[in-house]
Structures are given as C-alpha cells and as structure tokens.
Structures
1.
Amino acid sequence: MKFARNVRPQAVIPTASMADIAFLLIIFFMVTTVYDVDRTNVNLPGSNIRVQNEKGSAVVVLHNENGQMQYKFSDGEKMSFLVSGPQDISLEASRLAYGDPTRQFVVKADGDMRYELVDEILDTLRRAGVSNVLLLTVQAGAQKGAGS
C-alpha cells in the first residue's frame, strides 16, 4: 500500500494592495511635510521673549550679502523672491493686507543689521496697512546660527 505524499502548500505573499499602501504613504508624507518659505542664512538677534508665529505668515528678509543689501519677500505660501527694495515690499504687503488685515508678517533680519534699515521696513509695513508684525529671533543663550 502506497501512501500519498503530503504536499506542502506554497507560501504566497499577497501583493495586490501594495500599490495602494505605497500611494497612501506618499500622500501622507506630502500632506504632513512642512516646507520653509525662506532658507536665507542670517545671524538672528537673541531674545528672551518668544512668540510662535502663525503658519503661513508672510516673510520679509533683510540680508547683507557681501556688502550688498538684499530684500526678499514671501507671501507665506511660495518661496521667497528678491525684490528691489522697500517700495516693492510695500506693494506686496499692501496687496496681502488688503485681502486679510489681520495677516501676520515676520521680519527676518541679520542681528548686526543697522536698526535704521529694520525701522524703515517696519514703517513701510505700517504704511501698507500691516498691523501684525513679528521680528524673528533666536532664544537668548542658545547657539546663534542660521534661522529659518
């Protein structure tokens, strides 16, 4: 009498849903990733008082690049772009402030920048109708470096 040999079933990994899982992961990472609207390296001034800025705040950057003053602007959604000076910042800021008067603006300036230039930008923003302005700083006592 011959006995039937036990046939072992083949191990099969179901891969039908792998593409769905991959797309779900891609969507998850795209939605949760935070993008910087400005990556300009500046030496931020120190401060003991810290206030968190709102997500999507407009950004004004004052940066001294090799002795050349640079102004950059971002509406909080797109990457910052070079502008020619305070006049262009005034135009962009008034456009945003007209659409949303409570819109928050963040001024990002070098710590060794002459305060007259920062004051000029603050006056420009005030004349453009901006009422909510923050100055970007680094925690006092913390290592100063590139801010974002």
2.
Amino acid sequence: MIFHLAIPSRNLAESESFYLKIGANLGRKYKTHIVLDFFGHQLVCHKSDLWDRHLSMYPRHFGVIIEDLKTLKLLYKGWQCAPFLFERFFTRNPGKREEHCTFFLRDPSNNIIEFKWYKNKAAVIG
C-alpha cells in the first residue's frame, strides 16, 4: 500500500528542488503540480496561494517514520545546519512506551515535515 499526500506549494520549482535535496525522487511534472516518490509514498505538491499561514508544527504536518535510529541521526546530521531545519533533534516521551526521537524540517511553502524513529515499533500505531 502506498500513502498519498497532497500539499500546497507557492513555487513548484522551489518545492521540487527542496524535496529532491532531502531524498525524494521526481515522478511527474506538470504546470499545476509535481508528483514525488517520498520514501516510497506519493507526495504531490500543488501550486497554490494557500501556503502562507501561521508556522506551527501542530496540528498540520506530515512525516516519515525511519526504521532505525542510526539512519535518523545520519539524516539529522546532514540537515542540522540547513536553513530549512524547523525543530532540532529531541526525544519525546522518554522512558514511556511511545518514546521516539524526532526532528522537523520546513519546506519553502511552510509545510512542516517530521522525521522520527520509535524505540518500540508497536507504539507507532497502538
């Protein structure tokens, strides 16, 4: 099963460049939108004037759950000084069943992307 998410983009070329930098692959390109392979899922950036909003990670953000902590740390190391880093690496709910490490990026259209790893894989959904 492949998850699909559509998000607003103020500038498609800018969005394409950003997502390619963080590991996406371009699928299709149109005047109105681009389709990306984002960690095995379909991410569609639609040209829109609705991108300018209050910049907060809650409630609206999307993300990727990384399989291992080493990979998450390597991703963060590569992006920790980038201008699109939104929230630094931290551990949420330490010592609890749902403990996870996370950090957030912000794309050029103010979409917030979370990258995280769960210590207990069963806590991802339940």
3.
Amino acid sequence: MKRFYQNYKLLFGISGLVLILDQLSKSWIRSSLAMGEIWSPWEWLTPYARIVHWYNTGVAFGLFQGRAIIFTILAIIVSGLIIYYYPQVPKEDWYLRIALGLQMGGSLGNLVDRLFHNGQVTDFLSVGNFPVFNVADSSITIGCFILIIGIWLEERKAKKESILNENEVSIQENSSLE
C-alpha cells in the first residue's frame, strides 16, 4: 500500500485538486446564473472577458456536439490508461507527471458533468470571441502545453548530451593518435 501511495500521490493530488476546483466552480455557476446569463464585475471588461452559464455536449471549443456518450467512454479509457501508465514514468520526468495529473483531472471533471448532467458539460469562462470553456478544459490544455514543453526540453537535453559525447570521443581519438 505504501508503494501504491508513493507511485500515485502526485497524480491523485493534482487530478483531485483539479476535479474539486472544476466541480465547485461549475456548481456555483449552475446555482448562480440562469442558462445563457452573463456576469461581469466591470462593464468595460465584458467585451473581453466575462462569466457566462453555458453547456457543451461535445468537447473543447464546442467541437463534435451531441456525442456525449463517445466522450464519456473516451474519458474513462483515458483516465484508466493514465493510471496504468503513470507508475512507469520516471520520477525525474516531473513535467510528464504534472501534465498527466492535469489531463486526468480535467478529463474526470468533464466526465462527472457528463454522467450527472445529461451528457452536458457546464462551461462558463468566456474570453473575447473564443469558445466558452471551464476549469477542466483549461487543465487539459495546460497539461498538453506542459507535456509539449517537457518533451522539447528533454530532446534538447538529449541532443546536447549527444554532442558532448561525440566531442569526448573525438578528443579521446585525437589523444590516442598522438
């Protein structure tokens, strides 16, 4: 049990925090604003950013509307795969561990909505002309960015190590020729 806890504490901590923040914010929106109602603390801010009660039966950015059952099944599969794969991620790959936690938390946040709100995910963050989104959507997106940046940094590090190794071999070859 201790090994299980050590393997999963970061994953469940991050995903749990995302899930709680997501569900609390959505609950507040559903209880405070009527469907389609807009709230903004300052009138001048409304064209740029506002809170609006909306729902989505597709995925992020309003894509693939009406396919809630597919995304429900997909969220369960993705979460299961993350739980299976997570212990295999080296502890040094913290960026990947954080990214997976954010992605799983976001996936579970929208899954809870789909299961308990007739396949509809509550969205409420509206910025400019961008599609309305929520904490779970943001978490998945941020997790993807962290993953991409982490992979890029790892590739850079590997390339640098490869160049250093090549230089080392070249120096050794030169010194053996002398």
4.
Amino acid sequence: MINNRPKLIPRRLARAVAVTPALLVLAAVTPALAVPPEQWVEADPVSPLGYLLVLLLIPGALFVVISLLVSLGPSGKDGSGYQPGLAWRHEPEWFGGPRDGVEKAEQTQPRALEGAEGGASGRW
C-alpha cells in the first residue's frame, strides 16, 4: 500500500492559499453599516414592470435595432463589399496618408521593387 499522506498536506495548503483571496474579497464587500443622512429623500418604489423595462426591454430593443441596421447596411444590399481573393473594385484609399491623394504619393515614391512580391503572397 502506497502512503499518500505526505502529498496530501501540500495540496490542502495550496487549496487554502488559493481560496484565501476570494474569501478576503467577499468579506470586504459586506454592506456598509452606515445610516444614510436624514436629509435624503426616500426614493419612490419601482414596479417589477419598470425593472423589466429598464433592464431587459430597452437593451433588447437596442440590440434588435442595431442588428437590423448592420444587416441592412449599404454593403449588405447589393453584395458589393470586398471579397477576399478578388481584386479591389473601388477607388484606392489611404487613411492617414498625404492630403494630395494616393496618386501624388505614387509619383513621389521610387518603384525600386518592380515585380517583387511581398510577404503572405502580397504583390507590390
């Protein structure tokens, strides 16, 4: 018979050390025992329907509206969005590039790597 007793004590100690931070956090978030000032006005009670409206119905309605707007967007109507593997069919864009446009930048850049291919099968 094999004696597992020596291994059992470090495991229990490790479990106790792992659980200690969680227990400390739970102990720290107990409700405050302070009494609110008497000048504070008592809030009106909220009906269960009000809770459902604020917590479920309004966020659900926003989710549905945003989903519909995204699915019916301009690229969803005619399918003219970019499709991987096909050539880009629209005007070239360069965000953060020169204000004169891409054509101006192409004129000022030397074409030293004519015919060279870039990484990931890119063509320059």
